[in-house]
Amino acid sequence: MPGAVVFGLAFGALISEVGLPLWLAPYASSTVTAGASQIAIVEALRQGAPALIAIATALVINARLALYSAAMAPIFAAFPRRWKAVLAYLMTDQSAAVSAFEAHRWPDPVRRRWFILGVSGPFVAIWIAGTAAGAILGPVIPDAWQIGFIVPLMFIAVMVPAIRSWPAVAAAGIAATVVLILKDLPYGLNVLIGALVGIAIASFVPDRAAPGGSAEPGRSPEPGPEGGQS
After folding, report:
1. Are 61 and 195 in contact (CB under 8 A)?
2. Which of 92, 146, 197, 212 gets the most CB atoms within 10 Å of its CB?
3. Could you tell me the pTM of the whole model?
4. Residues 54 and 79 reside in one and the same domain
5. Distance between CA 14 and CA 172 in Å, rounded?
6. What b/e sequence results for 24-37 when a residue is b if at least 16 CB atoms lie within 10 Å of its CB, and e otherwise?
7. What's the domain count of the chain?
8. Which of 57, 71, 34 is nearest to 165 (CA)?
């Protein structure tokens, strides 16, 4: 939650810096609800990129939410449709990670959906409030605070525990390498290309747990036939 506030401040300050209307900050956070793609869109527009490239970049970055939805499907299976709709709207990287790792502790569907709402709702609310505050306070936030650093820091905190299989390791490593190699491309195209290349190549990597990981996040290994771990 504190990280979400600072992340929101960073995005809101970016809106103010670029000269876009201040109301756009909370509006974007209420409709897109995905900080990385919001920043990518604004940065692309600031660099003069065509709107098509800005939108394509955001769609590729947000494609991860489709993967989150597939992972959440078994967890949401017993929920009423209206609950599924609300929780899907509130889904973020952070809430998806916490839900995947912790939802098995709540086998009762009613308690589970309230748990996920408690994870997701306050986080999104504080994110929207943070972006509104950032848009207003952007001009007076000292550059020395370097609040933009919270953006990669938060995604590292979410990403690292989720890298539990070789495809995930490959996707992260390949995407990061391509982004660095192509860093001089205009309009942030290195991010778009890096994401696509990482996803494409990692899809050919056998789906096995990485060392120290688990094929099923949040679950303990089942006891083996000899009392050990299987």
Report:
1. yes
2. 92
3. 0.66
4. yes
5. 26
6. bbbebbeeebbbbb
7. 2
8. 71
